[in-house]
Amino acid sequence: MAFLSRLKQGFGNTFSFFGDSWAELKKVRWPSRKELTSYSAVVLITVIVVTIYFWLLDIGISELVQLIV
User: Fold this and answer.
1) What's the total number of domains in the chain?
2) How far is 57 from 65, CA to CA, in rounded Å?
3) Does the predicted TM-score (pTM) go above 0.85?
């Protein structure tokens, strides 16, 4: 009997978690299409800039290692 009560309590906590999560999602202010587009552009530009930075850094370090070796 103790096992069944623990099992029931565990499922109750799971259902409570999903119910609370759904309630919190209703409170979220979702971005408009214009905001989403501008945020996505900022992220893509940032990723491209950081990628180029590390690519150049990698080339520089590789050249230094080649000179040392």
Assistant:
1) 2
2) 12
3) no
